[in-house]
Write a structure and sequence with these properties.
With 446 residues, this protein is α/β, with parallel strands linked by helices. The protein is 49% helix and 7% strand. The protein has a 6-stranded mixed beta sheet, with helices on both faces. The chain is globular, with a radius of gyration of 22 Å.
């Protein structure tokens, strides 16, 4: 089994690899196939060391509700079954990773721990604190970006136009197929199968935001990808901004929970033909999505106006006293109780399905800015609603999308107007030029 590209690997401490079992601490990448972190752990284990996969289940997680935990846990059940077929034990630890990962390492005499790259604060804090406790090596592997985030750029990129050339230059090197994960031979660590009922009883989350109909898991994600390529991809470029057209992939929840590798999607789309549909999708999947990871990696305040560009902060500040036609509370936004049937329909789509069409999410967020007492209040509302209800919330893409909509991140100044200043404006008239608004309202209205 070949070693994976070393440019994906980043040492989180200075300890060395010692004898003893290899642990793959699964976090962002919750799948068995196409997983660079797991592949590296398997390579390090070779034929002479034991290998185990561990996932730490927190009793609660900021912004997450039963909707998200249900989707994640059902996906992890599939992970355990798939690993069992390969002779790799799966261990679900309950509690904070900061205590559970070092404890596990001591219990089994681990010699190496491999984990996933994640640019968000809470994950980086966990990794940093764990790294200091360990006397063995803790390695991070980027299995989420086609071009590894730490390698493609060592700074916060200004916009897609500065980031795109760097990605495109490296894409031929990194957009490859994945090797197979080889089964383990010999005696494995004595780990009992997970009691998934007990895991569900353990969590303490908001059960008022319940599961949705989207089927989770690695197999469902691959089926969804195949369906998108065989059907929607052929009209993606032309109809992706029409919420009624069913032209988008719907893969973002699977990417967020790591049930599908973005590199797998990119590889399959790139090899499905050449044309504007492939190019348009790869722009969104690779350039735009990986720009979000770049931003969060180099901007720790990614979910606040602190991280907004200076020109946007200045122009929004100049509009502080501007009169608003409507001002809604966070509760009114959450209940889809505004004067706008279109906005309410978008919020209802989020509440009921756990997702919102990308074009509508931009309009939705910009209207929150227009109808909030301040940009700060608007950003708090958008992040709260997206994290609480969207399956793909609590994600770099979501935080970057919120700042793009409200504070011009990765955008440029536009014509100045009240409330928005020079931040790009959107309204219902523009939506009506794009798609059949009344049809959308009929589907998702109250």
């Amino acid at each position: 089994m070949k070693h994976i590209d070393s440019r994906r690997i980043y040492a989180l401490n200075r300890a060395g690899d010692t004898v003893g079992p290899v642990v793959y601490w699964m976090s962002r990448e919750q799948r068995v196939r196409d997983n660079w972190g797991l592949l590296h752990a398997r390579f390090a284990a070779g034929e002479s060391r034991q290998l185990a996969v561990v996932f730490c289940l927190m009793k609660s997680y900021p912004g997450a509700a039963l909707r998200h935990y249900d989707f994640m846990l059902r996906g992890l059940e599939e992970v355990e079954s798939s690993l069992a077929e390969l002779g790799i034990p799966f261990l679900l630890r309950t509690g904070n990773p900061e205590s559970e990962i070092p404890a596990l390492a001591g219990e089994i005499g681990a010699g190496l721990i491999v984990t996933d790259f994640d640019p968000l604060r809470i994950k980086r804090q966990w990794q940093g604190r764990i790294a200091k406790q360990l006397e063995i090596s803790l390695l991070e592997v980027d299995g989420h970006n086609v071009v590894p985030a730490r390698f493609v750029s060592d700074k916060r990129e200004y916009a897609a136009r500065t980031f795109r050339p760097k990605v495109q230059k490296l894409l031929p090197e990194f957009l490859t197929d994945f090797p197979d994960l080889l089964p383990m031979r010999g005696e494995s660590l004595p780990i009992a199968r997970t009691d998934w009922g007990a895991a569900r009883d353990y969590i303490d989350v908001d059960r008022g935001v319940g599961p949705v109909s989207l089927v989770p898991g690695e197999s469902a994600a691959r089926n969804r990808l195949e369906g998108f390529i065989s059907k929607q991809l052929s009209y993606y470029a032309e109809q992706r901004n029409d919420p009624n057209a069913d032209a988008v992939s719907g893969l973002s929840p699977y990417f967020h929970f790591g049930q599908l590798a973005p590199q797998r999607a990119a590889f399959e789309v790139a090899h499905s033909g050449v044309g504007m549909n492939q190019e348009a999708y790869l722009e969104e999947l690779v350039v735009r999505r990986e720009l979000s990871d770049n931003f969060c990696l180099h901007s720790p305040a990614y979910d606040s106006l602190e991280a907004a560009p200076e020109w946007a902060l200045k122009t929004l500040g100049e509009c502080t006293g501007d009169s608003r036609s409507y001002v809604y509370s966070q509760d009114e936004f959450e209940r889809a109780a505004t004067h706008s049937a279109l906005w309410n329909a978008a919020q209802n789509q989020l509440l009921r399905s756990g997702s919102m069409h990308g074009y509508m999410r931009m309009y939705w967020a910009k209207k929150v800015l227009e109808w909030s007492a301040s940009p700060e209040a608007a950003l708090d509302t958008v992040n709260m609603l997206n994290d609480r209800y969207a399956l793909d919330g609590r994600d770099p893409n979501g935080y970057v999308g919120a700042l793009w909509s409200i504070a011009g991140l990765h955008d440029r100044p536009w014509k100045k107007r009240p409330v928005f200043g020079s931040v790009r404006y959107m309204n219902e008239k523009g939506c009506r030029r794009k798609f059949d608004v009344d049809r959308y309202i009929e589907r998702w209205g109250a």
